[in-house]
Each structure stands twice: as structure tokens, then as C-alpha cells.
Predict the 3D structure of the following.
Amino acid sequence: MRRFVLVLLLCSAGLIRAQIFWTETFGNGCTQGTAANGLVTTNGTWTQTNFINDPESNEWYVSSCEAGMGLNNCGDGCLSNPALLNRTLHIGANDGWTPTDPGAAYNAGGFCGVLFCVAADKRVESPVINCTGYTNIQLNFLYLEGGQASTDNMTVWYYDGVSWSQLTDPGKTLTNCVGGQGRWAAVPVINLPVSANNNPNVKIGFRWTNNDDGVGTDPSTAIDDITLSVVSGSPPVAAFTTSNNTICAGSCINFTDNSTNTPTAWSWLFPGGTPASSNSQNPNNVCYNTAGSYTVTLTATNANGSNSTTQVITVNPIPTITVSPSNPTYCTGGNASLTASGATSYNWSPATGLSCTTCANPTTNVTTTTTYTVTGTGPGNCTSTTTVTVTVTPSLVGTASANPSSICFGDSTLLSGGGGTNYSWTPTASVSCGTCQNTYATPTTTTTYTVAVSGGTCPTVTATVTVTVNPLPTVSVSPPAPAFCQGGNAPLTASGANAWLWSPATGLSCTTCANPLANPTATTTYTVIGTGAGNCTSSATVTVTVNPLPTVSVTPPSATICAGNNIGLTVTGGQTYAWAPGTGLSCTTCANPTASPTASTTYTVTVTDANGCTNTAAVPITVNPCAPPVAAITASATAVCMPGCITFSDNSTNSPTSWSWTFQGGTPATSTQQNPGQVCWTAAGTYLVTLIVSNANGTDTTSQSITVNPMPTATTGPDVTIPIGGSTVLPVGGGTSYTWSPATGLSCTACPNPTASPTVTTTYCVTVTDANGCTDDSCMTVFVDQNCPEVFLPTGFSPDGDGKNDEFYPIIPCFESMWLAVYDRWGEKIFESDDPGKKWDGTFRGAPLDAAVFVYYFHYRQLNGKDEKLKGNVTLVR
């Protein structure tokens, strides 16, 4: 049946008159591992020639491990489908790793050593084929092929009874099947050489080569349904047409085959052309670069013979165009004559400035540099072009400029010339370079400069520029040396210019006026820049002197006296003095008056120094009636906890002059300081503090009662030991309120008997406070045993409702966290939990599961830090 399909396909390809006289189908059967070398078929014995024989090189096999699937079908074999039994000739791996005869799958190597080299070059050869009585023989077969370019490749060979020669490389077939498998194809018709006609000793061979570079793609190659046939009929009649028989050198021609009697092969010869030959039916773009006459030959061939025909191609030369002069140049207003040669007619562009555009020798008078293109035409209307540039040199236009053109006396300006290549400046007495294009000038008065500009063949021209020189202003400031006392000011006046800029700005009422008011806090030198005509500037400076105020010192700075008494005052820091008010003073202009005020009075003295600067000071004098003191005590507290301290200070009136303190039970016990500061008690009780104060007018006594409260005694329980995860109560006594620390693991921090649940050994301390606010501390340690029992997971359970082993769950002493997941044998997750109290009852989605073995993944962490991931099996028993 498969051979019948092949005949129909061949007929549809136009081989209706084909007569098959030899066929090889390789038969049927899986027969994995059958070597092609020594294979016996109905045609005889197949043999093999080895050109390279590495120890594990790929091998030619004959079996249906790579089955013949028919034209355009994807490859397959008995290894995947035992029903496929059509045997083929194919290359398969023979490396000891892949199955023996894996079909058209080969080893591309890449790790060649002493034992593992797979390079192959093997030709499998047919039995002798008797072609007596047959001519014009064609070879056909079905095949698939992958590999790698020409390095891993199959070629077709022919034996004429004496030697072997290669017939063709049929090329790779499609691999667009699932998994990259090859697709079966029909080899293009292969015509055997004429030496096969009537030859009784013909053989057909298939040669496979692969290197050992590790690069290559399955399939290798497979071959089926080999036939030899003859075709009867008439040889072709060669004929062709061209796109043009006459061309210019460098042009190309397209050739079209018009041969009759259905040629199957074409041979073109193009002497002088590129390419020089072709086997295409209709070759395009055959190019001729050299002028001449060339004969083109076409030989058309089919199975019945060949026929040739010729045509002559004329290639005309390309003219060589020249223009003289090659680089004409003239100044603006001139002209140039151009002469073209090398062709029979000419065309110039652009037309601008030309006397004619189609003559050989036009005249041009363009005013700017212009490039002309001339196209020359020769025999066969072949053309070429060339260009000529007419350079027009502009007449010189000299320029002169100054930057800046207006300067101040003593400044320089940059003179710049333009329009040429050579320059000469006059006068030269005030310029830095008289023959430079750019030069600096420093004129002392307004000056006009002339520059002579030359260059090339055009006449010299001149240009002028005037530089204006402005005088500098004469700036002065009055008064020349102002001075004032600290806190005063000085008016300044600048003259000699039109605009002003003062610096620094510190202490100035304005910085851009002519007459600012200066009031700096320290002596300052000011600079004023005045701007006159042409923005020319000059400057002047003035120093403003700031005299400091005198430093006044009065002894005593203040005083207290009894009514009817007096006190001497002394002042320094100046040259003259003035006291006020004068009431009660012995003098008002002396440095040391005696003060005898009848009431409290503040005297002010004004001091004047040598610079006339003044300053003042005030002296308050308090006049008391001189009564005896009244004792009074100020204490920071009247009750403290033992041991405790209290700060004492005097609050007596009428100006006592002596103090006597007594501190019952305290440290210190006595003091004569006005403010004795801190006194401490170490024993509980009630104590009396007494203060006696005196002045010239009498004595007074007062006392203060002080309470020293006893300290409470905080009590806690003894140290205890608990297991990790356990807890204990922390007993406490001795007060009315409690504060515990640290808070970690405690049920509360402000209660008398908290529950402690630490995960590590912890010392807890409590502060006990009594009704008087006195405190005491005590501590106890809770030791935590870090040893945790082992985690347990059962290996099986029986969810039958009998109350025994009905659920699967972990037992985790010292639990901190966990994750448990159960999967069936297909990898589907049927149970998941992060709670040790959540248990699997053997159901999935509400339905009980059958007895089976399941896989669990278990990750847990205990309070002692142990962290473990487990995987195992659990058996569900019904």
C-alpha cells in the first residue's frame, strides 16, 4: 500500500512516464538494533565502508525504531508505538548510554576522551544493481534529516563499477513536528550519470558524517522507499530572451528561459559576466563591467537529452569625462572658460552663470564659488559625469573695531581687523603689535586708528575705528578724620564724581549716596568709589574713629545703713565727675563724697574722660530703722524617709548679722551659716530644728519640727526553677504598692503577686512603697529548664471512630510555632495546619479518603530555639 501511495505522488509531480525497475523498502518489523552492514534484503546484501570508526560512533541501523511514516508525515517508531513496523535505514546512537538503535537520534559528542569519542564517517552501500537495458536513470527516495549544517550531514553517492562519486547533498528536511521530530520528504529527482546507462554494476550509497563538537540537532537521517526509474520522451529545445542585448559597461541583464519540451536542468555560460555561470532557470542580475561583445550559451536538459543556444551581448564603454582648467579661480567680477572632453555631447548643471549648458566649452561669471556637474554621452548612449569647482574670491572688505570703543585713562582696548590675511595699524606708537590682526592699544587721548587690509590677489583696502579716552574723576571726602563717642554718629560728604559706592556697608545710612551718615560701633575705614564721564572711576578713603565710653567703677556698688549713719563712696574711670541728687552728699563733683541720706536713696554719678565721652553708674543706699531681727526658717521638707536629708535656709527679716542653727539628731548638728544647706538624719523619729538670729539691735529664736519615717522591708519568695513553657507566682510583702521589672513574662507589673512565665532564666525585682511613700527593693530568680522532650509524629492512624488513633497530629512539647502539610501520591495538598490543636481526621473536602500512604512536611520551632524541618510518610488505615 505505501509503494502505491508513492507511485501516485510521483505521478502528481509530473513523472507520469516514469518506469520503476528497482525498489528497496527494507521490509517490516521492529527488530531493534539490526545493523545495516550485512543486511540481506530481496535485492541482496547491504555493506558498509568506515572512513572513521571512533569507539562509540553513531551507527547505520535498519528497523522500524524510526518507522517509515510516508510523505509529509512526522517521524515516529515502534519504540513509542508497536503498531508502526515499516522499517527504514537510519543513523542512531551507539554509545552505551542511550537504548540500542534509538531511531534517528544520534550523539553529537562534545566530551571525546580515550573511550567516549563519537565522530563518524560511514557509507552504507546497496547491493549491486543491474541497469542493463535502462538509460536516463533517475534516483528517488523518501527521507528525513537534521544534524548540523555540513558537519553532521548525509550525502548521496554513486558507484559505476570502478569508483564512488558523490551525487548530491539533498539538504535538511523540516523539523516542525512536536518535540522537534523530523518530517518525511521526497528527495528532489536525482539523475544518475550517463555511466549508469546499461551498466550491470551500479550501487547507491548513503554517507553519514558527524564530528565530535557536541553541537547538533536530532533527527540524524532516515531513508525509505528507494527507487530507480527511467523516463521516456523528447529532449528539450533551448531558447531564451534577455532584458537588453546592448548595455553600458557596469550594467546588468536578466535572462529568461523559453526552452520547450520541459527541461529539468539548465546550464548558463556568461563569458565576461558576473557570475560567469548559473544553473538557475531564469538567472537575474548578470553584470558586465568591461566593454566588448560576449556570447551567452544556454544548455537545457531533461531525462531525454540536452540542447544549447546562444546570443551575443554588446557592452559599450563608459566615456571618461575631463574638464579643464581643473580648478579655475578668479576674484569677484571676473570670469573663467571651461572645456569638457571625452564624449560626443555634454550637458552642464546648474545653469547659473554659464554662457551655455549643452556646449563643450562654456564661460562662467558666477559671483560665488560654484560646483558644476557635466554629463557626457558616448556610443550606445552611455554616460558618465564629472565635476569642476569654480572658486570666486570675494574682493577685500576691510573692517576695524575696538572692544571697548570708549575707555578710561590708563586702560587698554582690543583692536580687531577683518577681511584679509595681512594687517598694518597706524599710528603704531600706542599698539602692542602693528602687523597683527588683533592688537591692544593704550591711548592717552581720544585717537582714530587705521588698519590696511590685504591678502591674495585682490587690492588692499583700509578701515578706521575711533577710541574715546575719558579722564578719571578726582574723588575726596570731608571731614577728612571724623570722630565721635560710642553710640554717636558722623556725617560724611563725597565730591568730585557723579555716582557713588561706599564700602563696607556696616554703620552707613546709605551706600550709593554722596553724603551718608556713619554710626559704626568701632573705628572703621570706609572706601568710596566715584564714577564720572565714560563710567571711569577713582576712589578715596576716610577713617571714622569711634571713642569708647569710660568704664565707671563705684565702691561700694550698694550699701545698707541705719538711719542717722553715713557711708563713704569712691568712683574711678574718668577725669571729671558729677553726682545727683546732691541731697545728703558732702560734694557733687569730687571722686569720693560722703553719703548721709535720711531715707533710702539711689545716687547716679556721670563720669567724663579725656575724649569728652561720658558714662554713668548708680549706687543704691538703703536706710533701715535698725530694729532687732525676726527669725524665720525655710525647709525643703518637713518629713523624709530614713535615711534622708532636708535643705534649710534663713528667711529672717530686719537684717540679722549672725545665725546659730541647732539640728537635733542631724548631721551636722549645728551651723553658723545664714543658709546651712543640706542636713541628714539616719534614724527614724521626730526632731526639732532651732534658729537664733542677731543684729546690733537684738536677738530672735524660732524652731521647726522634722519627721524621719522608717524604711519598709520588702520581702519576696526564694528562687524557683520551672520547666520551659511553665509558670510560677512571685510572692511579695512589706508595703502598700509594688512595681516589678522586667515586665517580660509577667502577668502584671503593678500587682502584689504576679504570675511569671519566662522562656529563659530571669531575675525579677520589685520596688515596695509604704503609706509614707518610703520604698525598699527585693529580687528573686526564676530559673528555666531549657530541656524540651522530643517532638512526636505518628507513622499511621485509623480514623474509624473507635476513639483510638482517630486523628493525625504532632505532639510538640515547649511549643512556639509549627507548620504541617499532607500530600497524596499525586502531589495534591489535602491538609494544612499551623495549630497543634488542629488535627487531620483522614478526610479531604469533607469526604473520607481511602486507605493509602501519604507524605507529610513538618516544620516546627520550640521555645528553647530548636528549629527543625521534617519529611515523612503516614499510613491511613481503614
